[in-house]
Amino acid sequence: MSSKIAVSNQKGGVGKTTTAINVAGALANRGQDVLLVDLDPQGHATEGLGLADVYESSEPHLGSALATIDEVPAISDIVYSQDEFDVVPANVDMFTLETDLTGAMRSRERLQLLFDNLDYGYDFIIVDCPPSLGHLTDNALLACQNVLIPALAEGTSIRALEILYDQIESIEQGYDTQINELGIVANRVEHDGEATEMMDWFDDTFGGQLPVWEVRKRVALKRAWNNGVSIFAHEEDSDMEAEFAEIATHLEEIA
């Protein structure tokens, strides 16, 4: 069975895609067979993995696969093989999915149905979620039942985390399931007073319950994204490789 992990926070600009790509890269670097699914209609992970040219591709694609329930395609039909790990890219047509799935049968279980039809046994499936709470994020949370939470080391993260936790609780109650929070990834941390206070808040709030990782702001992470790879396949060294490797080690231990 694949370990499936949603990377989610409805607040935009918190480093979801950076987290998803580099956690996938860290796991692949450790010999794991990884699939990354870009569930964000904006397609940042798709672009950041060098697949911008398929973002506007014709069917079949992830959007068309999620839009229908009568003929669920094999997800392998929309997988792109990369040197580091495989990718299911986003598609521009996914922008209409939130509306299309409203009131539709099993609207929050479409991704789970796709995963059930996966004919290849990946060790890990990482899902990069959109920066919103809706059908797509609910699909990821239900299909994965594990969530890794990126956040910024700033005060606005407190309310964003409260909203995400409320949504997780709502899904758990509505579908009689359990969604496991795997850890907090504090992104783009800089040396300033607010960041120090927020790292203390993360530790006080989640310490002893969840691991909290500190990913500092590094140009190398952006350059890796520009080159279509994770930091582990990027020629430029970065001290943040060790932090993502630590996340990967934790995920392996609890898988």
Describe the structure.
Helix content is 41%, strand content 16%. It is of the alpha/beta class. Strands 3-2-4-1-5-6-7 form a 7-stranded parallel sheet, sandwiched between helices.
Topology summary:
Elements: E1 3-7, H1 16-29, E2 34-38, H2 44-48, H3 62-67, E3 86-88, H4 97-101, H5 110-116, E4 124-128, H6 135-144, E5 146-152, H7 156-175, E6 180-189, H8 193-206, E7 212-216, H9 219-226, H10 240-254
Parallel strand pairs: 1-4, 1-5, 2-3, 2-4, 5-6, 6-7
Helix pairs in contact: 1-10, 5-6
Number of helices: 10
Q: List the helices and strands in order.
A: EHEHHEHHEHEHEHEHH
| Beta content | 15-25%
Structural Rg: 17 Å
Relevant terms:
seven-stranded parallel sheet; globular; about 260 residues; single chain; 7 strands; alpha/beta
Concise description?
This protein is of the alpha/beta class and 255 residues long.
